[in-house]
């Protein structure tokens, strides 16, 4: 059980260090995902996505723990504090810990910004892959229809069957 203000700050510091490690690993995964997407090796994404999901879960748990520690710390030592920003935590830290908190904040901010940018780029790459797949399926379906019409002795679809009409994309417009 944490009892002193310093123990709380040390516990917060360790939590932020743990979060930084998790965010750095998420950044590594985002880089690998980008390489895989550029190589169009979609199957290789599966293990990365599983690991990424686990890391996101762990990160959320760390952030919840940090929030609880901060709330308890506020109740005990800073009851008049309303704001729970990282900047405020660093301002309230013991002087000898402030430098470490500031370095952590800078590094966490850098990693999170880079991660957000890579995730944005990866989202665009995934959308491109899905659009490409949709176009390929649409072209294949049109070709199949053309071959069916070419080989059909009838003027229309066989009795009891409906005409397929226009081909719709599988992934974007719905299922054919």
TrEMBL record:
This is Flagellar protein FlgN. Belongs to the FlgN family. The keyword Transmembrane does not apply. InterPro entries: FlgN-like (IPR007809), FlgN-like_sf (IPR036679). One of its GO terms (biological process) is bacterial-type flagellum assembly. The keyword DNA damage does not apply. Required for the efficient initiation of filament assembly. It comes from Candidatus Caldatribacterium californiense. Residues 101-128 form a coiled coil. Keywords: Bacterial flagellum biogenesis, Cell projection, Cilium, Coiled coil, Flagellum.
């Amino acid at each position: 059980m944490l009892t002193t203000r310093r123990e709380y700050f040390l516990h917060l510091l360790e939590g932020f260090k743990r979060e930084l490690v998790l965010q750095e690993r998420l950044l590594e995964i985002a880089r690998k995902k980008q390489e895989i997407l550029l190589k169009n090796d979609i199957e290789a994404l599966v293990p990365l996505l599983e690991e990424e999901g686990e890391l996101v879960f762990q990160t959320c748990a760390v952030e919840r723990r940090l929030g609880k520690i901060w709330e308890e710390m506020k109740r005990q030592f800073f009851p008049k504090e309303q704001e729970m920003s990282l900047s405020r935590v660093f301002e309230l830290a013991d002087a000898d810990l402030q430098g470490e908190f500031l370095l952590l904040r800078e590094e966490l901010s850098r990693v999170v910004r880079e991660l957000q940018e890579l995730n944005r780029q990866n989202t665009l790459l995934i959308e491109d892959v899905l659009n490409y797949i949709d176009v390929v399926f649409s072209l294949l379906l049109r070709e199949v229809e053309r071959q069916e019409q070419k080989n059909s002795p009838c003027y229309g679809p066989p009795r009891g069957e409906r005409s397929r009409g226009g081909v719709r994309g599988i992934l974007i417009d719905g299922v054919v």
